[in-house]
UniProtKB/TrEMBL annotation:
Protein keywords: Membrane, Transmembrane, Transmembrane helix
Principal subcellular localization: membrane
One protein family per Pfam: EI24
Entry keyword Methyltransferase: no
The protein's name: Protein EI24 homolog
Alphabetical list of InterPro entries matching this protein: CysZ/EI24 (IPR059112)
Length: 323
């Protein structure tokens, strides 16, 4: 039991240190101007514009409205003046809500859409930069060469229209899986006493999976291989996702969203520059997590995804029969 606990802690620490290897970001941005530009755009939109807007609102707009339209009813205020102050508070609250509706929420949606487009570019340019570079032997991307077993698995997929349809089906299933897992993360957070701890752990796994998914897509690693490797190396990926969550866990939703939008491409690049999946095609007994049980992290999400797909298929068949 002690040996297992030590193994878990060492794997968690290894993942945590991998996520904090931000020097890779500097090296890769130095090697690729396209990568530097995309990363800079993420910082400009989410850091300067979005976080800057939140700062202006907190330290300038809100205090100014507080001064112009003060809080109601100090103890020594006359009753007539108190009624005016109540109107001021209502008007100030309305102006603040307008500020959110017409500035923060549209800016948040713009940031969300553009950032998700740019993240894919960041991962692609980082992937290309690593292929061209000669990083140190411990970090070289040759660690991430696609294992032969993965190549064989991809070769088994039919070509032509059949292969395209299978690819679309896998993408749909992946989207459903991550959507249900996100819902699970949110719902777990409301459990009394242990909810916050479980929420932190599931968020760590979720961000770790998101960070590595970009590279796994480029390497064409099949979804079942990803999930098997991820759930088997649960301690490593819990450690990798922890710095992502620590940076935002105690902040308000808007601030945490803006900060994560800044930090996420950095963690994507550190994931792109690491290579834990170099052993994905090797025998399980050779993995660093050998001896640890596979943790069914995505069990609930997989079950719900299969249920949703079966319901959709049943409705399609019924529609065909009635048609």
């Amino acid at each position: 039991m002690i040996a297992k606990s030590k193994q878990v802690m060492l794997l968690w620490l290894e993942g945590f240190l991998e996520a904090c290897s931000l020097h890779r970001v500097v090296i890769l941005c130095h090697r690729s101007r396209k990568l530097l530009l995309r990363t800079g755009q993420c910082f400009l939109l989410n850091g300067l514009i979005f976080l800057g807007s939140l700062g202006v609102f907190k330290w300038f707009v809100n205090p100014t409205l507080q001064w112009i339209l003060p809080d109601p009813c100090a103890p020594v205020t006359s009753q007539g003046f108190c009624s005016y102050n109540g109107s001021y508070a209502f008007l100030r609250g309305g102006l603040l809500q307008l500020f959110y509706v017409f500035w923060f929420y549209p800016l948040y949606m713009l940031s969300f859409i553009l950032s998700n487009i740019w993240y894919n570019d960041v991962a692609k340019y980082g992937f290309e930069a690593i292929e061209k570079s000669d990083l140190s032997s411990t970090e070289t991307f040759r660690q991430c060469e696609v294992p032969e077993s993965v190549i064989m698995t991809n070769a088994e997929r039919p070509s032509g229209l059949g292969g395209v349809m299978i690819g679309i089906g896998v993408q749909v299933y992946s989207i459903l899986l991550l959507t249900f897992f996100f819902m699970e993360v949110y719902l777990v957070g409301v459990i009394p006493y242990i909810g916050k701890i479980l929420n932190f752990l599931l968020l760590s796994w979720m961000y770790a999976y998101y960070c590595y998914e970009y590279k796994w897509n480029f390497l064409e690693i099949p979804l079942e291989k990803r999930l098997d490797f991820f759930e088997s190396n649960w301690a490593f990926f819990a450690g990798f996702g922890s710095p992502c969550v620590l940076a935002i866990f105690f902040l308000s939703p808007l601030v945490s969203g803006a900060l994560m939008a800044i930090l996420f491409p950095l963690f994507v690049l550190t994931a792109t520059g690491s290579g834990p999946e170099k052993s994905i095609g090797a025998p399980r007994s050779t993995w660093k997590c050998a001896g640890l049980l596979r943790l069914p992290i995505f069990y609930v999400a997989e079950t719900l995804s299969m249920l949703a797909l079966s319901i959709f298929r049943l409705e399609s068949l019924q529609h065909e029969k009635t048609g």
